[in-house]
Fold:
Amino acid sequence: MIKGLKICGVSDPETLNYILNHHNPPNFIGFITNYRKSKRFVEYKKLKELVNVNKRDIKFISVLVDPTDEVLEKIKNLNFDYYQLYDVEPERTKEIKKKYGIKIITALTVSQEGDVIKYKNYQEISDIILFDSKGYHKSESFDHNLLDIVPNELNKMIAGNIQIDDISNFKNKDFIIDLSGSLEDVNGKKDINKINKLLNLFAKI
Structure:
């Protein structure tokens, strides 16, 4: 059974407000905090205002790629429940978790089995392991069958260009599902109609 749903790359208050007030809200919402190559990146001043809301029961995630101490100090008092870390070694991950007292999602980018088994280096540190594609902001896919070697007891999330209609394929899997690009229009903006479709579909699974 799917363990949860994350909508990633929210960057405007209208979309955020819609999700927060939806009758079938997701479990997590992600915000691109320091990766400027992404069209979903949110500048600090705007981010500070964006996340300063009543989250209800939804967890807010700051998505960070190899964050510097300067970035981490800047965002430490923002309204986040998790830091989602890309390209961060285990010792650095442990250091960030301890210093900021925050839950950690370690993001591993996958193209082969060797990438998957890196979870073993983080399973004692991270609260969730995210298996994503190598595409970062490009919404690329990877072979999800590679994750068959991952033990059931690992708290895990899966991303990588997952489409709304793919959700039913995961109904017997114990993953948190992470969607972003498939919820956008041709201009790369989050599409309320697609988000509504996803949330209603997820509620029925």
Summary: Residues 74 and 181 are 27 Å apart (CA to CA). The beta strands are 4-8, 28-32, 59-65, 82-86, 103-109, 128-132, 156-158, 175-179. The helical segments are 13-20, 44-50, 69-75, 90-100, 113-116, 192-204. The chain has a mean pLDDT of 94.
